[in-house]
Structure formats: C-alpha cells, structure tokens
Amino acid sequence: MHNIKNYKATRHLVWPVIVLFFYLTVTLIIYFISIKTGREGASIATFGNGDDGLMYWGQIKQLYSNPKMFIDGMTDTIYVPLMTFILTLVHVNDPIIIRFMNWIILGMLLLGCYKIMNEILFVGTSTSRLDKSIMTDLSYEYISLFFCLYISLINNVTFSLYRDVWIYTGFIWCVYAGLKLINEFNIKYLFMYIFFIIWEYEFRKYAAFSLIFAGGIYYIYTKINKRTRKLLIVVFVLLFVLLYSFFRDLKFPIVNMSLADALNYREGMNALLYNSGGSDVNVKLDQSNVVLFLFAYLYSILFNIFGPLLWQAHSVQLMIITVGEGIPIIVMTIYIWKNRVMMKNRLLFIIINIYVWVLLISVTNKNLGTGTRLRVPAVILITLIYIYIKIKKKSVESNR
Asked: Model-level pTM greater than 0.90?
C-alpha cells in the first residue's frame, strides 16, 4: 500500500509539471520570435491579419503610460485594466509579464480539468484504493497529453496576449462548482459558482449568460417530469419562432443584446475584423424566414464545433486545424454517442453546458479562426467526457 501511495504522488506531480514546462517553453520561444519580427514580444501572425492580443497590448501600453486615458468603451473586458494594473504593480512594461500571468491561469485551467475528472469518476461510486489510484493516474496522463496536443489551446495561450485562457478557466471552474453543488449543496461552492460567473461576465459577457442559462436549464430539467419537458420544448420552439419573426430587437439582460444585435455583430464586426484573413464563412443567419434560418444555423453549428470542414480548409493553417482538431472532435463525439449508456446522470450538467455554449457561439460567429478560439471550453468538456468513458471501459475490462 505504501508503494501505491508513492506511485500516485509521483504521477500526480510529473504530468502537471510536463504540461506547464511545455507551455512555458513555447510562450518564451514565441516571445523572442515576436521581438525579432518587430511585434515587441506580444504576438506572432497566425490566422490572417486580425489579432486581438496585439490590440490589447496597444491599449495596455497606452494605459500604462497614461492611466487618465482610460475611458468607458475603450475596452469591453476587464483584461486590459487588470493587466495594466499588474504591470504597474511590478513596474515592468513588457508583454513577458502578461505571458507569465496567462501561463499561471493555464495552470489553474489544468487543475480545474483534473478536478472535474475526479468528480465524475469517483463521486457517488465505490472504487477500491488501487483502482482509484490507477484511474486517477490515467486521467492525469490523458488530460495532460490533450493539453500538449490541442493546437488552438496552445495557440491561444502562447502565440499572442489573448484573454481567452482566462475565459476558458472561468468556464471550467464554474462547471466544476456546479457539479459540486449538484452532488451536495455547500455554501462554499455556491460562492465559487457565483464568483466564476462574475469572472466570466468581466472577461466575456455572453460566456456568463451561457453558464447561467445552462444552469437554469439543468435545474428545470431535473425538477420536472418527462411529459412537462416535452411541453416546454414545444413552447420554447414556438417562442423562438415568434422571437425571430417579430421580436428580433428585444434586448436580453446581462449581455444587453437582442437577436438582431447578435446577427448584426456577426454580419458586420466579423466581416470588418476577419474577412481580410480569408477565413470568413459566408453563412448569413439574417434570413427572410425561420426555416431558412434553421438550415443556415445548423451549418453554423457544424463548422463552429467541427470546423474547418474539409471543403473550408483552403490554406495550410486551416488544413492543420481540420486534421489536428476537427476530425478528432468528430471522432470523440461519435465515440461518446456510441457509448452513451455509460454516462451517468451527473454528466448531463456538462453536456447541457456544451450544447448551450456551442449554440450561442454559432449565433455570433461566422469566422473559422475565431471559431477555433471560442469553442475551446466545449472541446475541453467533450474531451473530459471522452476520457471518462475510456477510463471506465478500461476499468470494466480489467475487473472481468
């Protein structure tokens, strides 16, 4: 038994260290390449000419030099003032500090994934100490390998000063807190859940809306019977038809956006920022009727979660994403569907969060490069479910 404990401790130490060392190495390499290419260590060019990270760095430099320049509307995220505050605190006006902060938050994201896996593997189950040790080791190994192979995650954490890793981390920790609350109400996890919703609101408002909406759907779904669920689905569909047909300008709280605002953003801002990069998908959701909208929306969902699709991969970068991400996501989704009988009810909360986030980003985004950034929380959760099923099947086979 003593050897098992030592084995477990060693494995738990090695895998996070490998992941963090890998990301630290990559971000330092990108930092020095960026300096050499005249981008001050902030970023290097990847998809097209649009680069939010470079834009954020420009705003951060302005605020660092003259804090009085900050005005409402300069940025819609807390990321810029927060990073400026940190640079001011350490008296260093250099992107390396922001890169280091993003790396620390990446570590927090990794820990959140470990915790979710522990929660869905062992809570409410009876597992021997040896089996638990082996299954935990496998989960750490698989999750860590995923982090080291996921192209868009590597890109979004290391290639530029994106805020995205903060959004991913808040999303994953909010899901973890929700899982803990489902298992047993605890004021600590309620505060954690609320804290990370606020976190998401400050970094990306509609991510907070997604988490709140998903939590509400789960709560209602588990409190009503099957007949009432079907009735609510019919009512929801009818309400959506009415909303799309007659009330597109109705603004929703939290995000302070209407359906028309979302469609206009998709058609306007996306084109303004990304068309020059050649990765814009010409799919319009602002259709003349709801039937045409649904066809266009389904296509938007497919390329946002699985894209770039093969016929969309018209560059080397996009083909790499198709082969390295799109196809594996499709394979994992099919595997999960085939083994859905192995999924326990508590995974429903994770699945609802995946659905809601994908449905939301498919309304607002029609750019392939942006889609690979936005879908990361959903892909992480899909991968965790895939790993869960893999480990459970291995456990069943070894105990036969």
From this structure: no
